[in-house]
Amino acid sequence: MKTIFRFQTLFSLLACLCLAIACSDDSLPDTTGQDTETPAEAPDALHDKLREKPYPKADNEIYINPAPLIVPQAMKTGDKLQFSLSNQADFSGTETILSTPKSWCMYNIHKTLKSGIWYWRFRSILSDGSEQSWSETYSFEVKDETPKFVTPAFDIFLNNAPRTHPRLFCFLDDGIEQARRNVTSHPEYPELISRAKAAMTTDYPSLPNPYDQAEAIKVSIQHLYQAYYLTQQKTYADKMHEILNTLLKNPVSDAQLFASNFGATDIAISFIEIYDLLYDTLTPNEKQEIENLLMRVSRYYFKLYCGMQENHIFDNHFWQHNMRILFQAAFVLYDKSNYTEEILPMLEYYYELWTARAPASGFNRDGVWHNGAGYFNANVKTLYYIPSLFSSITQKDFLQHPWYQNAGKAMAYTWPPASKSAGFGDGSEKGDEPNRQRISFADFIARETGDPYAGWYAAQSASLLRKDYELRLYRMVRNQTYATDFPSNSPKLIWYKDAGEVAIHSDLAHTDRNLSLCFRSSTFGSGSHTVSNQNSFNLLYQGADIYRSSGYYLNFSDAHNLMSYRHTRAHNTILVNGIGQPYSTKGYGNITRAMGGDHISYCLGDASHAYSGISDDPMWIAAFKAAGITQTPDNGFGTTPLTLYRRHLLMLHPDIVVIYDELEASEPVRWDWLLHSPTQFSIQQEQHILSTTHPTKGFTTITQQFSDQASQITQTDQFVVPPLPEPSPLYPNQWHLTATFAPSSKNRILTIIQIKDNSNSGESSNVIRKGNTFLCGEYEIKAILDNSRPADLSVTHQASNAIFSYSPDNPTIEGGTYLRKHPYSSLLYDISDGRYRVTEQTDYTPVSTRVAQ
């Protein structure tokens, strides 16, 4: 019996829901001198949403050798751009490179650059071939330690690319015949056939307008493609042909084709996969009609994207979905003589764009998804497909990029198994365990790179892995095995310097006793799927939330999102006079220090630049207008006199967290210190003690706060704007605590958090204060809260003698004075890699900087 499509509402809902360091590492040294030089002030650091200045310049430390050369679109004044690069300032010598003029605003060198200073310039080429004057000369330094990652030139890709169909999954060709012989015995075969059969029983010809169901049809075509590709059963091919005839009988207008950002590519990929798999059986007229549609889509988006995407910090939909499909359209047409001249530049553009700006903006080597853990899953298919195809065709491993090399560990640390996500960004609050896309990507990384974290992570959710259908074809062809043991030398702290996050775990391998702390202060700021949460943290125990960002991601920019989800008031950070951070890359932060040992883990975030005014991005201005919200101080938007916001965060293993906030403004301000919990707080106002008990797991969290400034603690379970007009059990109220401090121009706040599970809940939880000393369990904490004195924070683990010190003075370690190399360095003496060592850090300057030349 055939079924009629009734998926539009479901798929629409799903679409909405988815969507270094100056340091000394050694044993305790016999130091006889002290360097008292104060480090130069770090320059302002941010990423423009749309590039305003050429990259790289002298004030940019490059991320990769070779770095792409990128010119702002507004600086291209002709039809094409030409680049020149040299290790000589006058562009003489044999190392000088002159590029072929191209329509786009980037140039990839495709070879390793020697260490030293390099100079580059560009010029526009007019449509008649005449050359404009060269730009000013820019320079950058290549260092010996700069990570090297070289991609082959496009000509190599083009010469090796297949000329036959099917070709979309040519990187699986070496294993496809074996996979077909064994397909019925593969453990995922029942799921493969089940999904294909569901597509087989759908009555496509009865659809009144099939393009209204483009996303559902896309998914059905994928299931049929996989089933036919693996089983070679003609019935699946016939069904694909039936769908094609239904689509071709209903010509799509430009108005419908380009009605939404995903609409055209959802339609295009169905045609691409049918064209690729059934190429030898399609009639000339069917091929022509498919080619016509693919060219319409390709021309439209190439005109829109060429020059823009290389200069946009991160266009989510493009990198999630559109880039891959537009590349695939060019990939199936590039050798068709009627289109070669027009389509080859498009194929080259997307290849070069991936090299310049992928896999994660081009300015992120960390493996963590800088745009938020919640939206990583939407990028998985492209992150797997493109490097697999490029590696196979060019015979160069694109997974050697540092981001891919770090991705396995990053997935494990930012969203542990059997746990809620500890990460940030839109949708990160959803799910009680990692989703299938995340697990499938870990499996892919483990198979291809042997990464032990990825292997362990995927093995923790083996049953969920089999439910993933997007990478099923890959898994059913590839038969690699990998280790699944948790790495024995796993660190407790990971610092993602490029993305601006730190992840700390007390026992990552065992969720049932793991305390997870993630902290964000990022040069990527706020915008797109990141939120206004610089110097904010999430804290989980046993995989459940203790304190985390509040609100629900139901819409990208409705009133709840703008006022009670994206706004700084929804996060565990501060407000200044009730005002938060703007929705802008200009509202940025930076993690300046991070280090850890067996007993103490530490990081320092600087959000002094984050409270930078209202959101001036046209996208957000339009969103505020549509929601009927004005960016005024009464709504939590505006300028502030904040001059300093440094947050020190420590995990004292296994169950204590310490926060030391340094706050300054150019005039007295009201400081609102924020904390959010899924459960109600019990508040002891006089003692400034807060406690919560998890309703199902039973553990208790006790938080005590200290400051020389008077404060009043309040809580509410009401959102400024609720997620829905009427209460819903799907979106229960959450608790929002505010410690409001009397107006002052300076403030220091010490917060000590203890987690007590059922086994130790009877222990004393009160922190004992003796002047500037605070005793908490096995730890002694000293903190200067008097604003007239220099800031000072130290922690000693009394049983092991592990010590942390942030101070202008020298600490005592093992009975002797350690002469710190810099005043106000952060210094840790603790066990690392099996032995005690000293780590000393001053502020880390981000790789990407923007300063006036």
Poorly predicted segments: 1-43
Tally the helices: what do you get?
Answer: 19
Major sheet: 10 strands, antiparallel
Rounded average pLDDT: 93
- Distance between the amino and carboxyl termini: 70 Å
Instruction: Examine the secondary-structure arrangement and name the CATH architecture of the largest domain.
Output: Distorted Sandwich
Give short descriptive properties of this protein.
Glycosyltransferase; Beta-galactosidase, Chain A, domain 5; disordered N terminus; 22% strand; alpha+beta; ten-stranded antiparallel β-sheet; eight-stranded antiparallel β-sheet; 853 residues; 26% helix
Description:
This protein is an alpha+beta fold and 853 residues long. The protein has 3 domains: 182-361, Glycosyltransferase, CATH 1.50.10.100; 365-490, no CATH class; 493-842, Distorted Sandwich (Beta-galactosidase, Chain A, domain 5). 26% of the residues lie in helices and 22% in strands. It is built from 19 helices and 31 strands. The strands form 6 sheets. Strands 13, 14, 15, 16, 17, 18, 19, 20, 21 and 22 form a 10-stranded antiparallel beta sheet that branches. The chain is globular. It starts with 7 loop residues before the first helix and ends in an 11-residue tail after the last strand. Residues 1-43 have low confidence and may be disordered. Pfam families: DUF4962, Hepar_II_III_C. Residues 45-479 form the Heparinase II N-terminal domain.
